[in-house]
Amino acid sequence: MDPQELGFTPQRPVGWLAPLLLLSTGLRTLLAVLFGAYLDKRELQNALDGDWFDHSQTEDGELWLDYVADLGDGFDATYSVAYLLAQPNLQVDGASLPRGRLLLMGGDQVYPLASGDGYESRMKGPYRAALPEPPIGSPQPTLFALPGNHDWYDGLTAFIRLFARRRDGHIGGWRTEQRRSYFAVKLPADWWLFAIDEQFGAYIDDPQLGYFEQAARHVGPQDRVILMTPSPKWVKSVDKPEEYDAIDYFIRKTLDPTGASTRVLVSGDLHHYARYSHPDRELITCGGGGAYLLGTQQLPKELVVPQPDTLTRGRSVSKPYAFQSSYPDAAASKRMAWGVFRRVPTRNPGFVTMLGILHVLTMLAMAGAAAGNAGIVQRLFSIPLTVMLVLILAGSVAFAQPPKADRPKHARHWIAGLLHALAHIGLAIGGTWVWLQLPFHDWAWPGPPLVAAVLYGPVIGFLATQLTALYLLIASTVDVNVNELYAGQSIEDAKSFLRLHIATDGTLTIHPIGVDKICRKWTSDPHGAPDTAWLHPQDPLIPHRIEAPIVIR
Prior knowledge:
- By secondary structure, the protein is of the alpha/beta class.
- It is 38% helix and 19% strand.
- The longest helix is centred in the last third of the chain and has 29 residues, at 447-475.
- It is globular, with a radius of gyration of 26 Å.
- It starts with a helix and ends with a strand.
- Keywords: Membrane, Transmembrane, Transmembrane helix.
């Protein structure tokens, strides 16, 4: 896979516990929270073309469409899904499912940060390699993309340039039509697709509401709606009831007045597949397009949406949604969690190094305090040791991400963070005792710190990483640091996407597709047809249904 021939550089999976990435992403998130309103380009999009899109007319009166989200991570996982999406047909459990005429990307098209180079190497390049040219002998498929939080970290600049800049835009064989970060599409048989951009969950801007109000004038009581959102706020509202308010407001104020029924809500952001169901509506999370796998064992068995605790006046009537299915299931997810001891150190070497340096400095401070002539209290509170202990305490508590004091589960995050810190301090005390039994600490300076860096650092770094892995495994049982437990492992397998079919009689069938094992070895095909993939898997990719097709009439 020569980058000069491909036109992009295939990327390794993001090491989410890499120190610089943790710092950079944290700063970006902080800036987005503090200055997001100043970076928000949604209101400026009011100057762009505000038309909705009509894909309701097809030769046979039916339509196939695909949904994928959270895709722009490592090449192997991203391209495995792109390759399957680009095939003319997929053989899934004995059924032939044609390629979608529409490809819907549900958010986070690039990781870790949005940029032109990032999109090129992690998303655009792999999808262009999967479908280089429009299909020969069949209509050209169309791509629509909704931004997620990672697309938003530069204020949507790179996203708009890639997906909404030109009328003749395309990504490989898929053409792009949208002019804004949100869109409305009329589908066959009285179906509509609405995709709202409500990052970072604060509100839906007035120009966007105006755009959808214009589109909704063409929606009638006989119509049914698929609503795409950047994040599954129906799940997140369990801990933060107000998370679902913007979606509920949009349904109440824009869709309900038309008399149409909103039958499906679909989102990515959480990197797994999960479905909750009510007779009136399906709530589907499908974020398996390429990013690291997120476990499912913490998902509740029932959701009440909207949450009764929300303070919004005039909210919709709360309804119970029963858990139906997840991929991977809870049992498989728990088994994967145990891989944290092996995967975190091998996939995040910088994290091991950081912990090694932290513990070396702490050990030297403790050894220096123990060897002093001052009293025990003075030695315990020597300046270097105090600084290191404060760093360990602050870092561990921050890593646990405690919510505000008025939030539920606030105390468990603080307790988990403090216990994690105490465990590292205990490890440092044990390491210091071992160090003081060795002859190195009596050597003339700079002997001790050099030996500590060369011999003690790698060993204590590995042990500290295993301690952190143990913490992540235990903390996840009380719903703390679940994301970090899986992000640190960068599990690339167990990918998922949706293939949807609207029949001529108006029946919507959703096929949730899973891929247990991605491909990691590829064979180039330089002499293939212009519309065939540049790279083919050496071992077949085997898609399967996650659950039985979901039929909505």
